[in-house]
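Journal club side-thread
Mid-discussion, someone asked how the predicted structure for our own chain would compare to the paper's figures. Pasting it here so we can look after the session.
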Amino acid sequence: MALILHNIAQHITLTAQEQQLFLSKTETKHYKAKTVLLNAGEICKESYFVNSGILRSFNINDNIVEHVLSFACSGWWISDMYSYLSQKPGNLFIQVLEDAEVVILTKENQEMLYKEIPQLERFFRILIEKSLVANQQRLMDNLSLTAEERFEKFCRKYADLIYKVPQKQIASYLGVTPEFFSKMKSKMLKK
């Protein structure tokens, strides 16, 4: 539990009693690779903090093509934010890519914690703001950078994932086909 408390402490300070209350409203679970934590069409009632392992969020279009929206590794949060905040059915799947230990916070408990520990609202506002900025930057990158430049940014942001995540999922995250990604990566390695 030290990792999640450290994550929170980067933005707000909780007393020992507040930390205990927060932890009492979470649940830690272990999941095997390929476990689906959320299916598209379901209402997302939980957010997940990754203690260890790797998770991803993705959707599948009408042509049965996967589009990876995000990855989450140790120290990161992941959820279907649209569904979690609106409590309407979402479009994302959340899947475990590598055996993981995950801290689960339900929407109901998060709302209760806002009342008991008001500064947690500040913490989650900061997380949402950072997520919004990152998503806007990713959109701008997809519009203005080449695939090679997007891959270089991916390597800087997710250095640990390059060798742990299947190539086709990295290609999907970058918005290119696996074949194009393979050729591009080979060409970049020759430089």
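Post-session note: Residues 83 and 154 are 26 Å apart (CA to CA).
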